[in-house]
Amino acid sequence: MGNTAKQYAHSLFSHFGFDAVTLNPYMGQDSITPFTNNPEKGVFILCRTSNPSAVDFQNQPIGDEMLFDKVAKMAVDWNSNDNVGLVVGATTPEEISRIRKQAPGLPFLIPGIGAQGGDLKRSMKDGNTDGIALINVSRGISFAGDLSEKAIRNAAQNYVDQMKGITSES
Fold it and tell me: pTM of the entire structure?
């Protein structure tokens, strides 16, 4: 797995010029390390995603914790180049707070705002406590209204305005 991951990392970062990737940690550290070796490139590890069936695996107990807890702790350990973050979905805000306590300082990529109905305010509050939260809105913008350029621009501006409002409350 390590050699394959090394080739993928080279291709994505060197050939395609990506700055960051999202990775599934299911295959273990040797599938992640080739991506974290370059401190100039970022890695977001899937931890607690926003899709409804995420509970099928991510919320499975391992001893006295959930699988997503274990992933968060391992990501902290794997962050030797200060370039690892976690994907933590906005659809489970109580878990954002829980994971933030386990991974202070790691950036969170937070999907699930918009079409999936995640809580923007709580995601920003809990995600930015002791770290940075990058809020991702996809369908809520790209499939806005009648799909016209104006509708998409207005949807994007609406989210910007909401985020500014939440930030100014803090």
Answer: 0.92
